[in-house]
Amino acid sequence: MILCVGEILADMIGSNNGNAFCYERKAGGAPFNVACAAKKLGSAVGFVGAVGDDVIGEYLIGFARGRGFDYTIIDKNNSANTTLAFVDINADGERSFSFYRKNTADYLLPQVSDEMLKKSDIVHIGSLMLSEEAGRKAASELCERARKEGKLVSFDVNFRSDIYRDTESAVKIYKQVMKFADILKFSEDEAEIFGWEYVESLTDKLVCVSLGGKGSMWRYGGESETVPSVRVTPVDTTGAGDAFYGGVLSGLDGLRKENWTKQKLNEIFGFANVCGALNTLCKGAIEGLPDKADVMKKMRAE
Fold first, then answer.
1. Is 265:218 a contact under the CB 8 Å cutoff?
2. Residue 263 CA: distances (Å) to CA of 73, 112, 184, 237, 245
3. What's the order of all strands across the beta sheet hosting 84-89?
4. Contact assessment for residue 33 and residue 243, using Cβ atoms and an 8 Å cutoff
5. Is 253:2 a contact under the CB 8 Å cutoff?
6. Residues 154, 32 contacting (CB under 8 angstroms)
7. Over the stretch 156-214, which tens digit does the pLDDT of each residue have?
8. What is the pTM for the complete model shown?
9. Per residue in 285-296, pLDDT tens?
10. Of 129, 140, 197, 237, whose CB count within 10 A is highest?
């Protein structure tokens, strides 16, 4: 099972509508998106997160219940608000974010039970919580527990400059959690922020780098490969990296490290690239998530 822990929030996706600029509410949050992607592909998935005691929080709890997760805990905090991410999309489908995140609940996470940790194969942790002391403590403790139980730890960098304005300090915080990880996910821009020399030094970890329309790259054990993607015309790239990473984790779930061969990783990343590409054909991070049949159909068509 893939256990995803971290932020669940509302993506407020903006568009011009006549004389008004309107925002459409969509469920989001990187680890929640990854959970939804992996579940849509048929994996066993759990999700742990937190929302505020408000109308947006109620919406997200109801939405999560409809995803068919094998295990779900979403705390409703009556002293904090639900996190919002305002998303603007340009003519090419590329997006920019602005977070509404003062006195919000996303990092006030419930504890994962020992029973659920034992049932998990991969523990995937989101990064938004690292901007707050309570979130950093929760992430570090969960990583330590997962490693002691022999679980694979996954971490998505998902760097947001409007939350981490001091990039140098943020990178130091990230590295404290990244040292626990077996699997790391960067975007190409994030690899530049951390430095390719650092990324290339992580030979004991499976490093996943999403490259947009160019596909993705994996690095592991001193080997590296760039895997191409398929061509699509994006409508909205929100959540494309999460859909890709959900595909990666689904492929790795239950696969022992000694079987992370070049051939198998190329296969997993080729599949995951199509997951990410197909998800750009709808607005929002979740509604357009493909299932395994959708991905295989697209791969056969290519």
1. yes
2. 37, 34, 19, 28, 18
3. 20-28, 9-17, 84-89, 95-100
4. yes
5. yes
6. no
7. 999 987 787 789 989 999 999 999 999 999 999 999 999 999 999 999 999 999 999 99
8. 0.95
9. 899 999 999 999
10. 129
What tokens were used for 31?
């680890």
Give yes or no for a contact between 270 and 227, defined as CB atoms under 8 angstroms apart: yes
DSSP result, the chain: -EEEES--EEEEEEEEETTEEEEEEEEE-HHHHHHHHHHHTT--EEEEEEEESSHHHHHHHHHHHTTT-SEEEEEEETTSBPPEEEEEE-TTS-EEEEEE-SSBSTTSPPPPPHHHHHH-SEEEE-SGGGGSHHHHHHHHHHHHHHHHTT-EEEEE----TTT--SHHHHHHHHHHHHTT-SEEEEEHHHHHHH-HHHHHH-TTSEEEEE-GGG-EEEEETTEEEEE-------S--TTHHHHHHHHHHHHHTT--GGG--HHHHHHHHHHHHHHHHHHTTSSSSSTT---HHHHHHHHHH-
